[in-house]
Amino acid sequence: MAATDSTQTSATETTQGAPAARRRSGGGLKTAARVLKMLLGFYPVLLPAVIVAIVFNAIVQAVPNIFMERVLTIVQDNWQLGEWDPVAAAVLGNVTLLVIFYVLGLASNAFWQQAMAIITQGSLKKFRTAMFDHMQTLPVRYFDTHLHGDIMSYYTNDIDAMRQMISQSLPMLLLTGLIMSSVVGIMLFYSIPMAIVVILGAVVMAWATRVLGGRSASNFMRQQKAVAALEGHVAEAMDGEKVIKVFNHEREAEIDFDRINAEWETAARIANSYANTLMPILLNMGNLLYVIVAVAAGIFLTLGVPNLSISGLPLTIAVAVPFLNMTKQFAGQIGQISNQINAMVMGLAGAGRIFELLDEEPEQDSGYVTLVNMAVEDGELVESEERTGLWAWKHVHQADGSVDYVPLRGDVRMEHVDFGYVPDHMVLHDVSVYAKPGQKIAFVGATGAGKTTITNLINRFYDIEDGKIRYDGININKIRKSDLRRSLGVVLQDVSLFTGTVMDNIRYGKLDATDDECIRAAKLTGADEFIQRLPEGYNTLLTDNGTQISQGQRQLISIARAAVADPPAMILDEATSSIDTRTEAIVQKGMDALMQGRTTFVIAHRLSTVRNADAIIVLDHGRVIERGTHDELIAQRGYYYQLYTGAFELE
Amino acid sequence: MIKTLARSIRQYKRATIATPLLVTGEVLFEVLIPFGTASLIDQVKAGAPLPALLTSGALLALMALISLAFGAAAGLACSKASVGFSRNLRIDMFHAIQTFDFATIDRFSNSSLVTRLTTDVQNVQMAFMMIIRTAIRAPLMIIFSFTMAYIMGGWLSFIFLAVTPILGISLFAIIRYVHPIFKRIFHRYDRLNESAGENLAAIRVVKSYVREDYEIQKFETAAEEVRRDFTRVERVMALNAPIMNFCWYAVMVFVIGVGSYAIIDTRGALIDVGQFSSLISYGIQILMSLMMLSMVFALVTIAEEGANRIAEVLTTDSEIKSPENARTEVPDGSIDFEDVGFCYGEDGEREALSDIDLHIKSGETIGIIGSTGSAKSSLVQLIPRLYDASRGTVRVGGVDVRDYDVEALRDGVAMVLQKNVLFSGTIAENLRWGNANATDEEVREAARLAQADEFIQGFADGYDHYIEQGGTNVSGGQKQRLCIARALLKRPKILILDDSTSAVDTKTDKLIRMGLKDFLPETTKIIIAQRTSSVEDAERIIVMDGGRISGIGTHDELLRDNEIYREVYLSQNKQSHDEHADGLNDQEVSADGRN
Questions:
Q1: How far is B238 from chain A (nearest CA, A)?
Q2: A323 in a domain, yes or no?
Q3: Are A618 and A473 within one domain?
Q4: CA-nearest residue of chain A to B80?
Q5: B115 CB neighbour count, 10 Å cutoff
Q6: Contact assessment for residue B544 and residue B368, using Cβ atoms and an 8 Å cutoff
Q7: What is the pTM of this model?
Q8: Which residue in B80, B201, B260 is closest to A75 by CB distance?
Q9: Residue B3 C-beta-side C-alpha neighbours within 13 Å
Q10: A8 and A131: one domain?
């Protein structure tokens, strides 16, 4: 539970902390510091313990060289004797110490490996939920201005890259860094000139890694691009496969594909060539270094060059042998580092993008008027916890704290509203619309005329630039967004269904609705008939946004979902566009029943849906150009008349 | 399965065979190096003269360089072979898919074909690379290292034999344990991501219903499950390193302890100080190779399923093929259905179409109407043999469609599918799908006929306007008209429009139909529509209901005799019958009268 809390705090911390620094978050070091800080926040005890264990582990991996030197010195001094007993105690003593070190090392290694598994998955979960939680708070504008594919890649690619970084790269880099410095320390302890030979060799290897590794990284990026192009092409071709066949276009499709595939091959081959040759090169450079150190040792030994060392020990064969081992160890670590650095860079890039999401400004809401249920008690209206069907706006006045209850009637007025999605480009100009309680208001106009925009403003997906929108006389800016939206049922043209049963999806409108209520709503809206015919009826499982049923059927479910929510007012944005006309006739009855007594905003390109509205608002390029009932507008012989007679295309 | 996939190696056979050979060379020289260094150290110890020392040093360096050359060459050959193999696999699959019939495509589904062409191939490529390189290298390394260790250290080397099974068995046991769990939880992980994607797509609904907290709760629960599962597996996987270390430490302790004893006891006869460190080097190499081998095992396990899926595509045969001595000319546009029944899939339990008897004259205009699921599309898809009838015969131009060369038949029958797809490329390129050799004037003429010329001219770059992938930068109605123009360029004997003008306004719709009538009088035209106004002027209208023909006749006949048709018509034209004071419908009627 404590874990969950820390997610919450860290998420809010980051959102408040750094909106201004958003664009600068590219700095790798800064990102790394932030990742570490968050990890430390998630695991304030376990993570430091891991670090201690890794340090210990690194020392344990480096020190055996010392014991080896000691044992070898003993052996070297005594091997001609051919007698084991005199030296047994000394050798076994050292070996025992070694075993103790190893056992401790093993324990520390096992501990931090296990702990890192816990930390990695725990942190990833916290990152995931932090992203998701934060995403829920973002304004609709964010989703409209960011590609879904890009946002999804935060959850997939970026999290995966972070997983690699946290579980592998961070501990390995720490471990190898420590081992290397310990080994360098021990080398200097024994012989400074020999250590310099090893370090020089290592520098050359590091340089080779950088050159080859760097090239391999840029080639890798090129390969990624080629992969993306190939995958895009494959997706398009498979999607259009039936069209390809209808047009006998198979040969052309093959030629196109073969070309892009060949381009991929070139990029992939180059990238793989670099990657595949890097290891043998590093390995054998390690071998070369080994040989050089051996020869150097030989030269030092045979020429009797005086040894310079911290320990003051002379350079003997007993020093030379562990030195060679250390050389091998040292060279091996360089390969390790080169492996981890790529992963580290990718992980940090992923973390940077995740932070960008976490730093996005959440939706602002300064509304304080709330929506409550009212009940009649002793002839008086009082606030009720239960759902009574009687709604009121609870208006706590900020000045004196007095409470007003304004009955919800569904009177919506837009007055002189200007609005643009981007500052310089206004989409709505001086739009005024009045909906009296219970009226059905229809918006009509060509694509881009601003119909959907108006509904976006009423439920405050976007905030208006200028003008006022009042709901039962209250400025909607004063109404808490969640309550405003709860008062408006929305059915959109692009139906979004959730993975779950048909029943679950209808119940989404009112989470505590009984099965009976859901079925009643489905019957009311004409969805019941087709649901009954589904293989498992209401228990049919819908996945992938309900691809297994038709678009029209999905619309029916979304209408039933709105019906079960039973909201005081409704917005229907092309809600029946995909329902075939015969079914629509059935649905229409249900829709009429649903709209009865509710203020409803309807957008439709099928004029049959619009005809019986109390008022039809005709929009053109963000301006209201005509308004009136169907008969009035037909009589006017204006734009609506032209639309109605099919002179313009409506989509 | 292996045989099927191996066929895709082809021109990369040489690189494929060269890789293991080169790897063998690499390993051979690599293994000699510790042996050489051992004698070098012994030389040093014995106080050999400097020139001798340098000679052995140079010899060793040469071995390292040769090993490097072999290794690098192996790396290059391996890249060539594995990338090339992967390319060929994709080519073979893509080309195989081009021969698939609609039913086969349906059976596989688009998204699964995409996965097979991308992720599956990638995994197989990875496994292939491992098999020709690492799977050769690691065992060779183990054998050679052990041999060398035995030569140098005699019975001391048996410690490796003792440790190898411990490490080997535990590593493989871990993979065997973890892999099936991984498969299951990856599935769960995918679902978690899918649910994030679902939330993203539905964000307006979530916000409208104020379900943010509910969604967060749902996600939290799923994320917690994923965390628990993954932690469990990762902890098992995290045993790898300590086990490896344990073996490594055991070797070290044994070599140092027992080795010292052996040196002293035998006065350096069994092993000397120089060989001491080489023995340890061989130990490392053996352990590392075991580790690599377990990785190969893991990757091959992962790729196996993908390989099976790829093989499935490669071995699937299409049912719809041109017969021998096929007819290559469609004589005319007449169509006959004789007692046709059709069902999707093989089980054949539920017929989508039943008892269809229908005869359409060449040049006739036919309208088809019916509610969703009444099998309108299924009916017309039998004409260009997108599917084969399960029962009965479909004839085009008096010839059974199964006797035609498929390509010739589809050239004669143009079909605008309900699910329209334009491809990334210019408008002109898209239209020329209908006829690659069409002149600019022909392209424009087709576009004019489809009422598309005007809006195309409206684009700054006209016919060179670039259509984005998925045709996202043209509106639905524009897309439909482009698709009609594309089909018109084929100059077909039969033209089928499957609900192809649903997003086009009624006036334009009418203009298109009138154009078709004038421009393609010989062509049989079949128009599926939702609106009765789109089929009113057809010579005959077919009313479909539940996979059967409910009525055939002219507009007036059906209005009189067919209840479904009347119902649809009335629902769309309620106003004109309810209210008389409606000039606009009078006008439409009179316009109809004139045609």
A1: 5
A2: no
A3: yes
A4: A269
A5: 17
A6: yes
A7: 0.79
A8: B260
A9: 1
A10: yes
Residue-level pLDDT at A28: 77
- Strand-pairing partners, residue A425, are A422
All residues at 6 or more sequence positions from A181 whose CB lies less than 8 Å from its CB, including other chains? none
Last residue of a domain, one of A362, A397, A431: A362
Let me know whether A586 and A457 are in one domain.
yes
Which pLDDT belongs to residue B452? 92
Task: Decide if A25 contacts A18 (C-beta within 8 A).
Answer: yes
Backbone angles phi, psi at B481, to 5 degrees: -70, -35
User: Any bridge partners for residue B369, and if so which?
Assistant: B543
d(CA A12, CA A487) in angstroms, rounded, equals: 28
B105 touches chain A (CB under 8 A): yes
Which residues are CB-contacts of A27 (< 8 A; sequence separation ≥ 6)? none
Q: Say if A230 falls within a structural domain.
A: no
Domain covering B335-420+494-594 in this structure, CATH number: 3.40.50.300
pLDDT of residue B241 exceeding 70, the answer is yes
ipTM for this prediction = 0.84
In this complex, is the C-beta atom of A147 within 8 Å of any C-beta atom belonging to chain B?
A: no
Contacts of A92 in chain B (CB under 8 A): 257
The answer to whether residue A62 sits within a structural domain is yes
What backbone phi and psi angles, to 5 degrees, belong to A606?
-85, 115
Total structural domains within chain A: 3
Query: Is residue A327 a part of any domain in this protein?
Result: no
* Cβ contact, residue pair B475, A651, below 8 Å: yes
pLDDT mean over B208-235: 91
Q: From A320, which residue of chain B is nearest by alpha-carbon distance? A: B41
Q: Between B447 and B42, whose confidence is greater?
A: B447
Task: Identify whether residues A621 and A512 lie together within a single domain.
Answer: yes
Which among A83, A321, A650 has the least Cβ separation from residue B264? Answer: A83
Question: Using one digit for the tens of pLDDT, what is the confidence trace for B292-338?
Answer: 888 888 888 888 888 999 999 999 988 888 898 899 999 999 999 99
Q: Do B220 and A490 touch (CB under 8 A)?
A: no
**pLDDT range class, residue B586, cuts 50, 70, 90:** very low
- The pLDDT tens digits for B350-390 are 778 889 999 999 999 999 998 777 888 889 999 999 999 98
Chain B residues closer than 8 Å to A108 by CB: none
Residues spanned by the domain of A22? 1-190+341-362
The enclosing H or E element of B365 equals strand B365-369
Q: Are residues A350 and A434 in the same domain?
A: no
For residues B141 and B155, the answer to whether their CB atoms sit within 8 Å is no
In the predicted structure, residue B247 carries a pLDDT above the cut 50: yes
Q: Which of B71, B101, B475 sits opposite A280 (nearest CB)?
A: B71
With 0-12 CB in 10 A as exposed, 13-18 as middle and 19+ as buried, what is A336?
middle
Residues A385 and A493 in one domain: no
A581–chain B Cβ distance below 8 A for any pair: yes
Q: Which residues pair with B426 in a beta bridge?
A: B466
Same structural domain for residues A517 and A380? no
Give how far A456 is from chain B: nearest CA, Å: 10
Helix H or strand E segment including B542: strand B540-545
Q: Per the CB < 8 Å rule, is B74 touching A140?
A: no
Residue ranges in chain A modelled with pLDDT below 70: 1-27, 447, 578, 580-582, 586, 646-651
Using the Cβ of B417 and the Cβ atoms of chain A, whether some distance falls under 8 Å is answered with: yes
Q: What tens digit of pLDDT does each residue of B68-84 get?
A: 999 999 999 999 999 99
How many inter-chain contacts (A to B, CB under 8 Å) are there?
436
Are B265 and A167 an interchain contact pair (Cβ–Cβ within 8 Å)?
no
Report the pLDDT value the prediction gives residue A9, as an integer from 0 to 100: 34
Interface with B, mutate which of A147, A291, A315 (most B CBs under 10 A): A291
Check residue B347 and give its pLDDT.
56
User: Chain B residues with CB inside 8 Å of A277's CB?
Assistant: 71-72, 75-76
Q: Which of A75, A168, A579, A592 to mutate to test the interface with B (most CBs of B within 10 A)?
A: A75
**Closest Cβ–Cβ partner in B118, B209, B415 for A231:** B118
Alpha-carbon gap, residue A390 to A374, rounded angstroms: 5
CATH architecture label of B2-315: Up-down Bundle (1.20)
A78 vs B: CB within 8 A: yes
Q: Is B80 on the interface with A (CB under 8 A)?
A: yes
